Amino acid sequence: MDTREKIRSLENLRETLSRDAWTVIAGFFDPLTAEAAERVAGLAAAGRKLLVVIRPRDNELLSMEARAILMAALRCVDAVYIETSPEWRDVVRRNPSARIDEDSAADLRRSQELERLVLERQAAAVGPQAG
Questions:
Q1: Do 53 and 23 touch, CB atoms closer than 8 A?
Q2: Of 92, 69, 98, whose CA–CA distance to 82 is shortest?
Q3: Of 11, 63, 69, 88, which is most buried by a Cβ count within 10 Å?
Q4: Nearest in space to 81 (alpha carbons), one of 12, 3, 2, 1
């Protein structure tokens, strides 16, 4: 299966969420870290499908499309939506069995921490510059 088939448009999302029980996780996933993948996998529950919503971010490291493809490749993920409109929340709310898990502030902190670590390591590898 081409995992990109898991990526849904807003119209497809309406149809997809109209059936089955869903858990929805929204975040930046920029980049997708092992910690984030474990968190997503931990939300997968028996009898429920898992939707990942990729949220836009200023100064993104990876494009939203690249992040969506990475998330779709996770076996535990059933569908992915690239947030082009906040209307996805209304679509999710129409399914009474859907649950949303969202902690954008923590997600952003994790991304910023990873960026800081990478920059520190790059600076250490270069060493002091001759002046």
A1: no
A2: 69
A3: 88
A4: 12
Q: Does domain 3-124 have CATH number 3.40.50?
A: yes
The 3-state DSSP class for residue 120 equals: helix
pLDDT in tens, the chain (131 residues): 678 899 999 999 888 888 889 999 999 998 888 888 888 998 888 889 999 999 998 888 899 999 999 999 999 999 999 999 889 999 998 888 888 887 666 776 777 787 788 888 888 888 766 55
> Rounded to an integer, what is the distance from CA 60 to the centroid of its chain?
13
Both tokens assigned to 41: 């996998």
Q: Are 102 and 27 in contact (CB under 8 A)?
A: yes
Alpha-carbon separation of residue 123 from 110, 119, 127, 129 (angstroms): 20, 6, 6, 10
Max Cα-Cα span within the chain? 65
**Residue type for position 88:** W
